[in-house]
Every structure is written in C-alpha cells, then in structure tokens.
Amino acid sequence: xxxxxxxxxxxxxxxxxxxxxxxxxxxxxxxxxxxxxxxxxxxxxxxxxxxxxxxxxxxxxxxxxxxxxxxxxxxxxxxxxxxxxxxxxxxxxxxxxxxxxxxxxxxxxxxxxxxxxxxxxxxxxxxxxxxxxxxxxxxxxxxxxxxxxxxxxxxxxxxxxxxxxxxxxxxxxxxxxxxxxxxxxxxxxxxxxxxxxxxxxxxxxxxxxxxxxxxxxxxxxxxxxxxxxxxxxxxxxxxxxxxxxxxxxxxxxxxxxxxxxxxxxxxxxxxxxxxxxxxxxxxxxxxxxxxxxxxxxxxxxxxxxxxxxxxxxxxxxxxxxxxxxxxxxxxxxxxxxxxxxxxxxxxxxxxxxxxxxxxxxxxxxxxxxxxx
Length: 372
Description:
The chain is mainly alpha-helical.
C-alpha cells in the first residue's frame, strides 16, 4: 500500500480520491515561488496560491511557510482553514508522520463542518499517518512484527473512531483496507510473542495472547495459523477437550490448509491416547499463583534502628507533663562526703552519722596503744 501518495479527495467519484488532486496540476503550471526572504504576497488568496504551487512542486518547506503566513496573517479568511489542511498534507509528504497525526486530528477537531472532515478524510489521514509512523520493513533491522507496535495501536484507535462517526462515507473503502492491514500486522506480533513463550516452555503465558488474538482478529487470512497454535498450546497445558474442539474447528473450517491437514493427525493422537470426548474430564488448575510476601524481621526495633542494635538497655522516655501545670523545682545537688567530714545540715535538724565502712578481712589490724 503506497500510503505516502495519498492526498485529499477533491471529488467523490475519483478512483482513489487523491488522484483528483492532479487536476490542479493540469490547470496551473508548476512554478517556483519568490524568495521568501524578500517578501510575501499582499493578499490571502495570493499567498495560498503560492503555497499550492510549492506543494505541487514538492517544495514542502516553502509551501508550509506560505501556508503558515496565511494562517497567522489572515486568521479569519477561508484560506486560513485551507492553509491548515495544506500544512498537514505537507508534513505527511515529508514523512513527519508524528506531526501529521496531530495536525490532522487538530484540523478535524477545530473544523467539524469542513468538507473533508464530514466525509471522514481528515480522520482517515490521521490513522494513515500513525500507520506510516509504525515500524516498517528494512533489511538491516529485525522484522516489523518484532518491534514496538504502539503506533499501530494508535492507528487502530483512530480507525475505530472513524467507523463510529463516518461509516458509509466515500472514504470508507480506504479505511477498511487500512484497518485490515493494521489488524494483520498486530496479529503477526501476537503470534510472534506466543511462539516466543512456547519456545521457553511457558504455555500459560502464551495462551492469553492466542485466545485474545482468536477473538479480536478473525477473518484476516491467519485464522488457520492461530487455531493450530492454540490447539498445540491447549495440548501442552493438558486441556484435552479444549485442544480436541480447537483442532476439530480447524479441520472443519480449513480442510485444504496444511494446518488443517495436521489437525487430523492431532485429532487421531488425542483419540488414541485419551479416548473419546468426555465433557466431565478433569481440567488442570489455571489459577495464577500469588507471590509470597517476604518474611518480616524478627526484631522490629533492630530493623528500624540498626545502629542501636546490641547497645544494651535504653533509657526510658521522660513522663509527659499535662498541659497547664508547672514543672517541679529541680532537686538540690548533694555532694557526697569525702573522708570523715560530715555534710552540713540545716538548723533544727539532727544529722545521723553514717557508719564507717569496716576494713576488709584481709587488712592488718591497727596496733593497740601502749599501756601506761
């Protein structure tokens, strides 16, 4: 699909719609506009005509500058609206597809009564820009289905919006063709991911991809491949009856396909190995396992303050004093007695001397005084 050659459809009866744009080239001679560093034209229609001429000459940078001048200098002119559309087309032709997606979406949002918005062409071009921005085939790079497919998902979203709002318009046949191509490439990516998991003996991870692909992308030419891979995966997971029904569906719908011929071999194997169909056959538990929570530390204080671990008993926190009460006066400091000195006492009190410390048993007794 040569999506880069798509231009806006001028007439509904044209073969591709964009071919009618060549009538403009037949009516006007291709010429090169004046040097933009010198001056622009005086009116909106003159500048827009110069922008069209540069666009037909494939001088897209100059076409964007002329059209942007019309958009800014004459914002209330009808040529300002056409200039916005011309800028989006020029960005698409320059392969600036990310900018083109935003330009076409913004145009459709700001000008809902425009001819090319009402017939769905602007929305279709936004989807085509997203499609062209997706990975393309190149011999030096891995295949396109092995790389990121987010741009294809964006293109599919734009196409879904198109079919919700513009179904039955003159551009519908182009949108159908683009949607089939986008879905085919997304399905190839799903099959690649499923084969990746199967090659690593993880059928539980592949089964979700295959079941979603079978339900979301039917009728685009890869149904036999999807059914065959789905039956193989069910057989690996011991889903015998599901595998039997899948291979039966494959053999019935695609009897001449090579995968349909292989399905008959697998059905014969299932019948010989597991007997006839049994709706009460026990199925394996497919509930996903829940991860175990990590063990909690034994000493929560040590885990919260590892620097205090092993430092001995901690000093208790001081009691909390109620609000509105005065703090008690500090206790007087008492100096312990040194030697035989008795600590001073306040008047009117009797001090009791502390008993002296007896000498240790191993000490030598003092010599008695001599007798008179």
